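Task 17 of the worksheet. Students: predict the tertiary structure of the chain below and write it out as structure tokens. Keep your answer in the requested format; marks are given for formatting as well as content.
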Amino acid sequence: MKTPKTSLFSTLLATLLLLSATGAQAGKKPDGEYFETLPRFWGGLYSNGGETLYCGRPFGKRYRRDINAEHVFPMAWVANSLKCGKRKTCRQKSNRFNTIEADMHNLFPALRKFNQLRGAYAFGELPGEPGKGRCDFEIDKRKRVVEPRPAVRGDIARAMFYMSNRYNLTLFKRQKALLLRWHRQDPPSAEERRRNNIIQKLQGRRNPFIDNPELANLLLGSRPPP
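Model answer:
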């Protein structure tokens, strides 16, 4: 009897993700409380500065008060999935929530204003011209959708795939399809690979969708376009 292709895909995906999760730093404790993680996020991952996710604004070595850490996979979605209540309550009673909240693969620098505007809205593509002003970030409050700039859409997609797979968090079909397209249109960059390497040293595991972009096709049960 032939083994179904989907089973082969699932086995391959599980094996590659396991290898990525263990990695060279398998002996290091991978997680910590969110507020314990923040100093390592800024001091280790962005010790020389960087740029904000949604607006691409450069920042230097010193922490800027108008920049904070954005959870690309919203913690409100995590709280709903775990059914642990509001964020503060989840921190008090759910170790799993604390582990998820502290994962640096889901954290990116963002201007506080745009972090708050995004909230827990889904990602999407909105009609019309790119956002005006100094930040190409569009929002439709009625539809509860935000559209980030094209240069970071793949970064966002791979972070979302990692979180969904690592912690068994739900991504709905329409969001998955959009993220897969962004993943293909915007392949991993040197900055993503830099982040991945440092996060492995700090946290103990990698994002396998950066190392092996084809995993996204297996995860979603689809094949890349010809």
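Marker's comment: The chain has one domain: 5-11+30-126+136-219. The first helix runs from residue 5 to 22.
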